[in-house]
Amino acid sequence: MKEVDTFQAGLFVGKTVVVSGGTSGIGLSLAKGFAEAGATVIATGSSESRLVAARAESGSGLDFQRLDVRDKAAVAAFFAGLDRLDVLVNCQGVARPDAEWDEETFMDVMDINLSSAMRLSREAFPLLKATRGSIVNIASMLSYLADETVPAYTASKTGIVGLTRALAHKYGRDGVRVNAIAPGYHRTDMTKPLWSVPESENKISDRSALKRWGTTEDVVGPVLFLSSPAAEFVTGVTLPVDGGYHVG
Length: 248
What we know:
Blueprint: H1 2-5, E1 16-20, H2 25-36, E2 40-45, H3 48-57, E3 62-66, H4 72-80, E4 87-90, H5 103-131, E5 134-138, H6 151-172, E6 177-183, H7 192-195, H8 198-207, H9 220-227, E7 238-241
Parallel strand pairs: 1-2, 1-4, 2-3, 4-5, 5-6, 6-7
């Protein structure tokens, strides 16, 4: 992974990283990136089939565990079982196009995408305080834009920006930094209905300043940076990683 080559070899040796939502897409790339940089990585997900697939394709340094981020007791037990934590990446997220106008679906998406980031961060805080670690939340270009087909996704990702700022000030006095990235259009299973159709694929590429879609690997470098000593005076920020799409 060329993005990891930018950083000093072994930058995260001896560090423990949890990537929630780390069994596919951006989360899986982040989990692999931290592992390649020397970290011990625990990647969680709620889909047993994705856990099985991730275990089959990934190498050493990665431990995949099942975790329902909506389950407060399960989240508490998960972090209680850790001896150390240096970085928490809240990458869990879903979108339910059109269905999110149903109130029950809306609330479920909000719970997975936003409330769980608060839930995991609170339970992880004592461990992060001990290591003066950091949290990286995953927002979205829809933190700044709107998509009428996914009102809950749009609202939850906008909320991630505000939550990141609040957590940064709450936890900063204890040396824990909290930042976020806001990915744009990256080639994942979630966006496949768009990039698999030439018309929509080209329309999105044309709006981007870099005239291309992002890859899941494009987010690895920014997250490693925000989690590293190079960013030790950076907190409360949300960094767009969208090739310039949202300012196009």
